Automatic annotation (TrEMBL):
Domain HTH tetR-type: 20-80
Protein name per UniProt: TetR/AcrR family transcriptional regulator
Keyword Transcription: yes
One Pfam family named in its UniProt record: TetR_C_13
Keyword terms, alphabetized: DNA-binding, Transcription, Transcription regulation
Origin: domain of life: Bacteria
Gene3D superfamilies linked to this entry: Homeodomain-like (1.10.10.60), Tetracycline Repressor, domain 2 (1.10.357.10)
Length: 208
């Protein structure tokens, strides 16, 4: 009976033992790895190396690679990608919101010491058939951004801020295309000042 109690106590102690690594730091390392290299190029071995944990600890703390990537995207959006929603929510018109988000994209897409561009745009550009759900998840996020812009444009149109006949969907697609293009230009090494000039040039096409 005593031996049984001791074994039970030992198992309980192991289950209750705190992790031997910093989960937040490990997650941040995974964000950087996926952001830099994309979903397909990153292996579990790569993740354990940069996160400084062993595979069993990774699976126990984060689940499989796809589950970890979902958490990585959430963490990325919270820290680096929330500027789009903030700009559209805080500015009084769609024009000012889009001008701000494009200007801020030039900053966020060229952060010193970080991978360039937007992970939501670039992390799943070459997914295999087995990762279609990953591709769809990022596509859905990009579509949500498009719809946010379109909703702001429609509100401006209804308020008389835009000329009658303005197509909200086409204007939103145009803005999204500029945003995504700026991300790729940043990946290709374009500097922040040039991207800010691109943002200003894009806004000169705004109706009215």
């Amino acid at each position: 009976m005593g031996d049984t109690n001791e074994r039970t106590a030992e198992r309980t102690a192991k289950r209750g033992r705190p992790r031997s690594f910093d989960r937040d730091a490990a997650l941040k390392a995974a964000v950087m790895e996926f952001w830099e290299r994309g979903y397909e190029a990153v292996s579990i071995a790569d993740l354990t190396r940069v996160m400084h944990i062993k595979a069993p600890s990774l699976y126990a703390a984060f689940g499989d690679k796809k589950t970890l990537f979902e958490e990585v995207v959430e963490a990325y959006v919270r820290e680096f990608g929330g500027f789009v929603e903030r700009a559209l929510a805080e500015e009084p018109t769609a024009r000012r919101g889009v001008a701000r988000l494009l200007r801020e994209a030039a900053y966020w897409h060229t952060l010193p010491g970080h991978p360039r561009g937007c992970m939501v745009i670039t992390a799943a550009t070459n997914c295999t058939a087995g990762s279609e759900d990953v591709l769809r998840g990022l596509q859905e996020r990009r579509v949500r951004t498009l719809r946010l812009i379109e909703g702001a444009v429609r509100a401006d149109l209804a308020a008389g801020e835009l000329p009658a006949g303005t197509d909200p969907h086409v204007l939103a697609v145009y803005c999204s295309a500029v945003l995504q293009g700026m991300s790729q230009q940043a990946r290709d090494g374009m500097d922040r000042e040039t991207l800010e000039a691109v943002a200003e040039a894009a806004m000169r096409a705004w109706p009215g």
